[in-house]
Predict the structure of N-alpha-acetyltransferase 50.
Amino acid sequence: MQLKKINIAIFPARYNDKYYTDSIASGDFTRLAYYNDICVGSIAYRLKKKEGGPLRVYTMTLGVLAPYRGLGTGIKLLNHVLDLCAKQNMSDIYLHVHICTFITFTPTVCMME
């Protein structure tokens, strides 16, 4: 599975079978990014129903191989999902962030109305 291969290359964590089952079940919300026929990144989401509330979109992973960062690949992946959410009137998108000491991270907040 290409998603598993790219995750192993990008992330220090290893994901269980449920992660991949949820990724496939989310349909268009999970995407691979290619550059000259090389898989260089991915975005994976899980759709969750909040008790008594709307369907929520949980960002499980978003990553791009180091040599291909800075080319706009990550933002294209993110925009794809934001567009899907807008078309389906979903406004509850969330994620958890793991920050490694060797990565410089500048948080950015995106709001959808």
In short: Strands lie at 31-35, 38-49, 55-64, 93-95. The longest strand covers residues 38-49. Residues 73-87 form the longest helix (15 residues).
